[in-house]
Specification:
single chain, 106 residues, alpha+beta, five-stranded antiparallel beta sheet, 3 helices, 5 strands, 29% strand
Length: 106
């Protein structure tokens, strides 16, 4: 289930990389300029980049535990513009958060 106030567009700038390098520090998937996906052990967390005193801070805007179709809907409704690498990374996600989490725990 998604919740939170959706931010329109990213205020900050995030770097893009190839899909195999998308997770930086195993915590954040860069989806496009100013957008990222992470998890908190219970659900996916959609965040936007914000400039805070000259440093990029990630602000959570939505939380999704169900499936990747809902995740895509949340991103679309939030106005996220995905990079080609971000789109490929989303396409590579398992159908559900649970399946994704179980694959990490192997």
């Amino acid at each position: 289930m998604a919740r939170g106030n959706y931010a329109k567009g990213g205020a900050g700038r995030s770097g893009l990389s190839v899909p195999s390098e998308q997770w930086d520090g195993k915590s954040r998937l860069r989806l496009g300029l100013g957008w990222s996906l992470s998890d908190d052990g219970l659900q996916w967390v959609v965040s936007t980049a914000r400039n805070h005193k000259g440093a990029v801070k990630w602000q959570p805007v939505a939380f999704v535990r169900s499936n990747s179709d809902v995740l895509r809907r949340v991103l679309r409704e939030a106005g996220a513009e995905l990079s080609p690498d971000g789109e490929r990374a989303l396409n590579a996600l398992p159908a559900t958060y649970r399946q994704w989490r179980e694959a990490l725990d192997v």
